[in-house]
C-alpha cells in the first residue's frame, strides 16, 4: 500500500524545500547515519525512504554500474548515488559502438545493454566500502534482468540480486524500463509487474524498493503501473528512463538519431520526463525521483515543482560538467 504521512501536510507541499519531507514506512532496521564530506554547493537536507539525504540531487543509474566510484561520488557533491543497473549474471552488454553523442541536441543515445560484472561483484565492492567506512551518502542499487534469463523467469533473476545486496543497498530500484534488453519493458505490464514487485518487496524486507518506469508509457499504462506498484508495497517511483522517441532532436542530427537504436537522454527528454513526474505525483502518495533531461539548475527546480522529491543527473553532466551538481543542489534548496 502507499506510504502516507499521518501527521504532515499533503504530499505536494511536503516535497517543497523548507517543508517537512514525505517519509516512507519505517524500515526493519534504523537508517544509516552518513558523515557527509565536502559538498560542492549548498543544499537543504531531506529525509525520505528512512534515509537522510544531504540535498536532493543524486547520480542516476548507468554512470557507475559496478560501484567503482562508490567512495568518491559524495566528494563530488552528490547527495546520493544509484549504482547499476546490475544483473544477477555478469554480462558484456551490447556490441560496440553503443554510446553516441548528439552535441547540437545536447543528447545521448545509448544501447549499452546492462554491461556489468554481476551483482555479486558489486556486492563485494560495496561491502568492502562499508566495512572501511568509505560510504558518505545514501547508496541505491538499480537491478535488472540478465539477458540470458527468459522473461518468464525474470522474478527469480531479480531475487538473486535482492539476496546478494541484503544489508548493503540503502534502497533498491527495479529497472523494468530500459529499452536495450529484449523483452524487459514487457515487465511493465500489469501481470508481470505485479508478480515481480510483490516478490521483490517481500524479499527486500525493510529495504525500500522503488520501480523505474519508461517515459514512453501512455497515461493509461502509467496509471496501471502505479496501481500495481502501490498494491505491491513499493516505497517510491523513479521517472523516467531513456526514451525510444527522437522528438526534440536537432534537425541536422535527426537522421543519425533515427539510424541508431537505443534510448535517448538529455535535453530532448526534459519536457516529457517532467510531464511523467507530474502525472505520477498527481496520482500517488508515493515519493517520486525525477530523472531525465536535467541540464541546468532550473531544470532541477522545475522537476521538483512538478512533484519530485529527489532529482537525479546523468546526461546533463556530459554537457554541463560536474558544476551542474552544485548548481542543481542550490536551485532545489531555495524556498
Summarize it.
The protein is of the alpha/beta class and 335 residues long. It contains 10 helices and 13 strands.
Can you put this structure into words, describing what you see?
InterPro entries: Aldolase_TIM (IPR013785), DHO_dehydrogenase (IPR050074), Dihydroorotate_DH_1_2 (IPR012135), Dihydroorotate_DH_2 (IPR005719), Dihydroorotate_DH_cat (IPR005720), Dihydroorotate_DH_CS (IPR001295). Catalyzes the conversion of dihydroorotate to orotate with quinone as electron acceptor. It is an enzyme of class 1 (oxidoreductase). GO terms for molecular function: dihydroorotate dehydrogenase (quinone) activity. Monomer. The chain has 335 residues and is α/β, with parallel strands linked by helices. The protein has a single domain, classed as TIM Barrel (Alpha-Beta Barrel), CATH 3.20.20. Helix content is 31%, strand content 16%. It has ten helices and 13 strands. It has an eight-stranded parallel barrel with strand order 3-4-7-8-9-10-12-13, surrounded by six helices. A hairpin with a 2-residue loop joins strand 1 and strand 2. Helix 4 runs parallel beside helix 5. It is globular, with a radius of gyration of 18 Å.
What attributes does this structure have?
alpha/beta; 10 helices; TIM Barrel; 13 strands; single chain; 335 residues; disordered N terminus; 3-stranded antiparallel sheet
CATH topology: TIM Barrel
Strand content: 15-25%
Q: Please provide the ordered H/E string of secondary-structure elements.
A: HEEEEEEHEHEHEHEHEHEHEHH
| Global outline | globular
Largest sheet: 8 strands, parallel, barrel
CATH superfamily: Aldolase class I
C-alpha-based Rg, rounded: 18 Å
Amino acid at each position: 500500500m502507499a506510504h502516507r504521512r499521518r501527521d504532515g501536510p499533503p504530499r505536494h507541499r511536503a516535497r517543497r524545500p523548507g517543508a517537512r519531507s514525505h517519509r516512507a514506512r519505517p524500515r526493519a532496521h534504523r537508517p544509516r547515519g552518513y558523515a557527509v564530506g565536502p559538498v560542492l554547493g549548498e543544499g537543504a537536507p531531506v529525509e525520505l525512504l528512512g534515509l537522510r539525504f544531504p540535498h536532493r540531487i543524486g547520480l542516476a543509474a548507468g554512470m557507475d554500474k559496478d560501484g567503482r566510484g562508490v567512495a568518491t561520488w559524495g566528494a563530488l557533491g552528490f547527495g546520493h548515488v544509484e549504482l547499476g543497473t546490475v544483473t544477477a549474471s555478469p554480462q558484456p552488454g551490447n556490441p560496440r559502438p553503443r554510446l553516441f553523442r548528439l552535441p547540437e541536441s545536447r543528447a545521448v543515445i545509448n544501447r549499452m545493454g546492462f554491461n556489468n560484472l554481476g551483482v555479486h561483484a558489486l556486492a563485494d565492492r560495496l561491502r568492502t566500502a562499508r566495512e572501511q567506512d568509505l560510504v558518505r551518502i545514501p547508496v541505491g542499487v538499480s537491478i535488472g534482468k540478465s539477458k540470458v534469463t527468459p522473461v518468464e523467469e525474470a522474478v527469480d533473476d531479480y531475487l538473486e540480486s535482492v539476496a546478494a545486496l541484503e544489508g548493503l543497498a540503502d534502497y533498491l530500484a527495479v529497472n523494468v524500463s530500459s529499452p536495450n534488453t529484449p523483452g524487459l519493458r514487457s515487465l511493465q505490464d500489469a501481470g508481470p509487474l505485479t508478480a515481480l514487485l510483490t516478490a521483490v518487496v517481500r524479499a527486500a524486507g525493510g529495504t525500500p524498493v522503488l520501480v523505474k518506469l519508461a517515459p514512453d508509457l501512455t497515461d493509461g499504462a502509467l496509471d496501471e503501473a502505479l496501481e500495481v506498484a502501490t498494491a505491491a508495497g513499493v516505497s517510491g517511483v523513479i521517472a523516467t528512463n531513456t526514451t525510444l522517441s527522437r522528438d526534440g532532436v536537432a534537425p541536422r542530427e535527426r537522421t543519425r538519431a533515427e539510424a541508431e537504436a537505443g534510448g535517448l537522454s538529455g535535453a530532448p527528454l526534459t519536457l516529457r520526463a517532467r510531464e511523467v513526474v507530474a502525472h505520477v505525483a498527481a496520482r500517488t502518495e508515493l515519493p517520486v525521483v525525477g530523472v531525465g533531461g536535467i541540464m541546468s539548475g532550473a531544470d532541477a527546480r522545475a522537476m521538483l515543482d512538478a512533484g519530485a522529491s529527489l532529482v537525479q543527473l546523468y546526461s546533463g553532466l556530459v554537457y554541463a560538467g560536474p558544476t551542474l551538481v552544485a548548481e542543481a543542489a542550490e536551485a532545489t534548496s531555495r524556498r
